[in-house]
Design a protein that fits this description.
CATH superfamily of the largest domain: PAS domain
Strand order of the largest sheet: 4-3-7-6-5
Distance between the termini: 78 Å
Strand content: 15-25%
Number of strands: 14
Helix content: 40-55%
Number of helices: 8
Number of domains: 3
Radius of gyration: 51 Å
Largest sheet: 5 strands, antiparallel
C-alpha cells in the first residue's frame, strides 16, 4: 500500500519537523525516566544507609539472649517511598536473630557472603521467595562483643510505581506537546513561505508579453529574497533578449523588404515596354546588384544568428597582427582604388596576438570597408599598429569621413544602427558590419571602439592582448 504523497511544502515541513520533534520527545522521555529512576535509586541507597546506622543504635539484647529493636523510632521516615522497610539481623553463620514483621517470615537474602558488609555498606538487589524485588544494604555491626550482620531492604514496588506514574504523565502530555509544536511549525512555515507564495502568484502572471513584470522582494537579505533578485535579473535578461529579438526581426524584415521591392520594381518597369538588348542587360545588371546586396545581407544575418546561438567557437592561433592587416588590405584595396583612395599601413611586424584568423579577418574587413565607404574620394586612409602599456596591441584605422556624433559612439555598434539611414542605404550598408566586428572582437578577447580625429574623420581601434614570444622579447 503506497502512502499518499503530500503536495504542499508547508505540510511536508510540518510533518517532517513534527515527526522529528516526536522522536526527540520520546528519546527525552526515555532519558528523563532513566534519570528519574537513578535519582530515586540513589535516594533509596542513601536512606537505607541512614536507617541502617539508626538501626545499629537501636538494637538491644534481651535477658534470654534474643535481639530486639525499638520500632517506634521509624514512625517518622526520612523518605516517603521507604515505608515498607525490611530488617533482618543474623549471625555470621547464617542464624537469624531478628526479623521485622514486614518480611512475613521470609528470609532477606540467602546465606551471608564472605566479608559481606565488613568495613563497608554493600548494596544488592535481590528477589524474595514471595516474588518481591528488594534493594538491600548489608553491614556488620558488633553488639556486646558479638558481630552481627544487619540487612535492611526496601521493596522496589513503590519505586517502580513512582517511575510508572512519571512516565505515564509524560506520555499523556506528549501528544498535546506534539500537536502544539506541529501547529507552531505550520504557522511559522506558512509565514516563512509566504514570500514564496507571492512569488508563485506573480510568476503565473508573467508570460512572453509581460516580461517587464518582476517578482516581489520582501527581504533582500534572506534566501527567498536572494532567489527573487536572481529571478528578476533572469527576467530582465530575458526581457532584453526578447526585445532585441523583436527589434532584430523587425529590422531584418525591413532590410530584406527593401532589396526585394527594388527587384520587383525593376522587373515590373522592365516589362512595361519593349526594350533593346542593351536596356535589358542594364535591367539585369541592376537586378544582380540588388541580389548581391541581398546576398550580403543574408550572409550577415546568418553570422549573427550563429553567433547568438553559440554555434561559433573561435579556434585561436598566434598570428602577426600587421601581416593580417596587410592581407585584408589586398582584399579590400580594390574598393579604395575605385574611389582613388590610398591606404597606408605602418607598424611593427613582430607584434603578435592569439585570435581566430577567420574572425579577425572579418573584423578587419568590416572596419576597413567602413572607412573606405565613408571617406571622400581621393583621400588617404591611414592604419597604425602600436604597442600600448600592459602588453596590449592596438590597430587604428584613421579615415577622413564626416565623423561620428558623440551620442552615437556607443550605439554605432548596435545591429542595424546607421547614423544617416538614407545615405547609408545608398552606400549599400545594412548597419550590421560593425555589429559583427564587435562580436568577433569580443569573442576573441579584444576590444573595439571609435574616437574622433584631431582634424577630421574618425579612428576605429581594435586592440588585443599581445603574445610575448622569443622573437619579440
Amino acid at each position: 500500500m503506497a502512502w499518499p504523497q503530500i503536495k504542499k511544502l508547508r505540510w511536508r515541513l510540518t510533518l517532517w519537523y513534527g515527526s522529528t520533534f516526536a522522536i526527540v520527545l520520546l528519546v527525552h522521555i526515555g532519558l528523563a525516566t532513566f534519570l528519574h529512576y537513578r535519582q530515586l535509586l540513589q535516594q533509596f541507597n542513601h536512606a537505607e544507609i541512614q536507617e541502617l546506622k539508626t538501626a545499629e543504635g537501636l538494637l538491644y539484647q534481651t535477658a534470654d539472649g534474643q535481639v530486639r529493636i525499638r520500632d517506634d523510632y521509624f514512625n517518622h521516615p526520612q523518605l516517603r517511598l521507604s515505608l515498607d522497610r525490611l530488617l533482618q539481623v543474623m549471625r555470621p553463620d547464617g542464624a537469624i536473630l531478628y526479623q521485622n514483621h514486614r518480611l512475613h517470615g521470609t528470609p532477606l537474602g540467602g546465606a551471608p557472603l564472605a566479608r559481606e558488609g565488613v568495613n563497608s555498606y554493600r548494596h544488592t538487589m535481590v528477589r524474595l521467595s514471595d516474588g518481591r524485588i528488594v534493594i538491600m544494604v548489608s553491614h556488620v555491626h558488633v553488639m556486646n562483643g558479638m558481630p552481627v550482620l544487619i540487612r535492611l531492604g526496601y521493596d522496589m514496588e513503590p519505586l517502580y510505581a513512582s517511575v510508572a506514574r512519571f512516565i505515564f504523565w509524560l506520555l499523556l502530555l506528549a501528544p498535546f506537546s506534539i500537536l502544539v509544536t506541529g501547529y507552531a511549525v505550520y504557522r511559522a512555515t506558512s509565514g516563512a513561505l509566504r514570500p514564496l507564495s507571492l512569488m508563485t502568484q506573480r510568476a503565473r502572471q508573467i508570460n512572453a508579453e509581460k516580461l517587464n513584470q518582476r517578482l516581489p522582494v520582501i527581504d533582500a537579505e534572506d534566501d527567498l529574497g536572494q532567489l527573487s533578485i536572481e529571478f528578476n535579473q533572469l527576467l530582465a535578461r530575458l526581457d532584453d533578449a526578447f526585445t532585441q529579438l523583436k527589434r532584430f526581426t523587425s529590422d531584418a524584415s525591413h532590410e530584406l523588404r527593401t532589396p526585394l521591392a527594388s527587384l520587383r520594381s525593376i522587373g515590373e518597369v522592365g516589362l512595361q515596354t519593349k526594350k533593346t538588348g542593351q536596356e535589358y542587360r542594364d535591367i539585369v545588371a541592376s537586378m544582380l546588384e540588388e541580389v548581391s546586396r541581398l546576398t550580403s545581407l543574408v550572409d550577415s544575418l546568418l553570422v549573427i544568428a550563429r553567433s547568438d546561438s553559440g554555434m561559433i567557437h573561435p579556434e585561436k592561433s598566434v598570428v602577426s597582427y600587421l601581416a593580417m592587416m596587410q592581407e585584408v588590405q589586398e582584399l579590400v584595396g580594390i574598393l579604395a582604388e575605385e574611389k582613388q583612395q590610398s591606404i597606408e599601413i605602418a607598424g611593427d611586424a613582430s607584434l603578435r596576438i592569439c585570435v581566430d584568423r577567420g574572425l579577425l579577418r572579418q573584423v578587419l574587413i568590416n572596419v576597413l570597408e567602413n572607412a573606405i565607404k565613408y571617406s571622400p574620394a581621393g583621400t588617404r586612409i591611414r592604419i597604425d599598429l602600436q604597442r600600448l602599456p600592459e602588453d596590449v596591441v592596438e590597430l587604428c584605422v584613421h579615415d577622413q569621413g564626416p565623423g561620428i556624433p558623440e551620442e552615437e559612439k556607443t550605439r554605432i555598434f548596435d545591429r542595424f544602427r546607421r547614423i544617416d539611414d538614407g545615405r547609408s542605404r545608398e552606400r549599400g550598408g545594412a548597419g550590421l558590419g560593425l555589429s559583427i566586428a564587435k562580436w568577433a572582437t569580443e569573442i576573441n578577447g579584444g576590444t573595439i571602439g571609435v574616437r574622433d580625429e584631431p582634424e577630421q574623420g574618425s579612428c576605429f581601434y581594435v586592440a588585443f592582448p599581445e603574445v610575448i614570444t622569443a622573437k619579440n622579447v
